[in-house]
## 1
Amino acid sequence: MTETTTAIHKFSCPACGAEAVWTPSKQALVCPYCGTESPAELKADGSLVEESDLAAALRAIPDDQRGWKAERKSVRCQSCQAISVFDAAHVAKNCDFCGSPALLPLNDTGAPIRPGSLLPFKVSQSQVREDIRLWYGSHFWARRNLKDKALTDTLHGLYLPYWTFDAHADCPWQAEAGYHYYTRDSQGRQQRRTRWESASGRVSHSFDDMLVPASKGVHPKLLKGLEPFPTTTGLVPYDAGYLSGWVVEQYQLDLIQAAKHSRERMDGELRSMCAARVPGDTHRNLRISPAYTGQTFKHVLLPLWLLSYTYGKKNYQVAVNGATGRITGEYPLSWVKIAIAVILALLVVVLIAQFSK
């Protein structure tokens, strides 16, 4: 299940009173009716972004760090099962993740941990539309009509929930290092053998802003393709003004689950680092004993442009990093092009066989 919310607070235009919207190309709140730009007293010093102690957070999250502090309503998409949480005045007509109009109202789903920081949108919608058209055109096996239309009428700007984790690891390791050597058998044939020796060492490494996505609305295989996000330099303290006019997905992977995922990833990276330190030509029975200190986390919102559409019976998504413009996506294959390619390949094989006779 996926939960989304629109801007928590409304920011009125100082000229006409309509709701102003955060606009990436202007980096300001802009009124969609009269065009007035509001400088907006939004914090922009990324150095003010604070990280929270992980151990303390896992014990308890205080109530004043939970919730959006706004009246809201929830709907469940009967097609993809996403749960969207909107500002009370917002009227949801279609699911932002799959486009289905089959939405049913739900009761309040509870108060999440409030984001501590976010990465503002930098790439404009007009630029994304053109980039997606070019992206489709660069994929030969995609259907031609997708390149022409690009389906950009279903493009939505979203803020995705992520957890980031920092930690310092001190990791002793032990293994058996293998050294290859060669002998010859009784018939003179060369044989490779391995001599095994005990080896040990220690790896020290600091993990910084390890990303763990908490989204269920975007296909998981696309999320890794969006990275990297400039979280070390671009994050700003959470301010509802940045969310004005945008949809926010509420995390579905909670802090405890995310911390477990991050630890598994850290252990995996440490194992690779330790394996690279084992001398010799190969190794076996590698054992690591990592100890972690200085563990901190952040709950952050990262910008995404999402194109979601159904072709045949399958749902496809194209995702664009809202800060860097990086594109990753899915598309239906053109079986006509594939069939022609197979026929041509068979003709080439037949011709080669004929000339080789």
## 2
Amino acid sequence: MAAMEERAGEELAVYCKSLGCPKNRVDTEKFIGQLGSRVRLTDNPGEAHLVFVNTCGFIEPAVRESVRTILDLAGEKNRALLCVAGCLVGRYGTDSLASGLPEVDLWLEPAQREQWGEMVLAALGRDSSVCAGRLVSTPPSYAYLKVAEGCRHRCAFCTIPSIRGPLHSAPMEELLAEARTLACRGTRELVLIAQDLSDYAHDLGGDANAFPELLRRLGDIDGIAWLRMLYLYPRGITRELLQAVRDIKPLLPYFDIPLQHSHPDILRSMGRPFAVEPERVLESIREVLPEAALRTTFIVGYPGETDEHFRHLYDFVERMRFTQLGVFTFWPEEGTVAASLPNQVEDSVKEERRAQIMELQQEISRERLEAEVGSVQDVLVDSVNPEWPGLHNGRVWFQAPDVDGICYVSGPGTMPGAMVQADIVECGDYDLTALAREG
């Protein structure tokens, strides 16, 4: 094994690469905290004692990226311990991966995430008795709060339940304590994440009010200016949840709802856990919160998707005018029901359909952002723009970190972590430009 045994109190140089979704990022942050207070993060794998890769294995392109990253780092790591964790390991298993990737020194299963730090420190010959807590890697403006792990749904195209396991909600008091710690750190925005946030506490015997109650208690924490929800299944958009969004001041009327399609035939084939008319869900949101930002994702080229099914989806997007939208082409993932369905769609057709939806959404996004020019918005500043001196990258309330457009902002008080009031002066297809006001 390539581990370098060091004295327990000596500095531990760590190179980290976290691939995939924000849930992986939180797992990586907590893992680094498990390693203790003597950790030094480095951008150079060649000088690290530990090279850690938290992989994604959700779809085939993510699998290929994970394997490519592992092999690249194996050639750069010098004498470091190469440790690989996450969804790739959960999907294919340690034994299968070890035979194909002998360059890896230590494999960590997702189900072992609470013990990752202890296992790695043991492999390095270091003391595992000291834990520094979570080491947040996001800018001071925001942090992710993972409220649940796994998923209890069984969509025909999805590998998540087999990789990350069944739904496992975090106890509410633990989440509140973690949120208070993040607020004390200076975090202005908490981004709540789970495979389906509205399913929170279902496995703990909680009722439909458990998630709204969590939101209310998070909203009472001093210092948190914005609460944002990522990933809500349509079935969980209840009247209680909408009232909570309306009544809780920090809670943004931002709904990320992965609809995946609009046509009842395709939704039934997908096994989506909600009624086959997603338009009703969106109308219920806009009835209570007319200003709500709606974000979604769709899959095109699902087995059996005809031209008629696609036209239904295209017209739905045109009619609903989503604030943000992502489109994925269907991948027949090994081990899923959808992979063996008849009437698979040709790749060229999938790509053409994706391009058509994205072209339509580009026009919608541009029109929506043009309407914001001339308005005054609160802008949360994330980082210094790396190319233009004096310019910062920030976001207005309907822009989530990492997945949506950004707001370029300059002027008084603009620094990472600051919330500034600014005039929106220009827009592109997906981004805004703003000038901060005095005072």
## 3
Amino acid sequence: MIKKILVVDDSFVMRTLIKDIISSDPDLLVVGEAANGTDALEKVKLLAPDVMLLDIEMPGMDGIECLKRLKLISPCKVVIVSSVAQVGSPQAMEALRLGVIEVISKPSGALSLDLKSKKGSDIVKISRRAAGLAE
């Protein structure tokens, strides 16, 4: 069964990289994308994704506020993909407290063009786990 993924990042380049990573797995389908938390919540209502790949630092509504509101409207699982949510950081700890499946740090800052080579397999593996698929 194909699982639906929503990609949320304020950078068009990062959304494109993440969509490319996800499309390498035939069981995962990117059904939408959003540039901030407000847009993400609207897309969740329309698209009912199984998993959201969410950045933290975005204009308007950031990822942490989006997580808080998401819990009220959807059972969607969330994986953080962010440059500010490094393992052990306050942002990562707050995201985990709010129920995210995992925090994946972008390897080279907000615009990590090496994301696919350094974290691509982790993103697919964790997205599959979040969606309830075998790794």
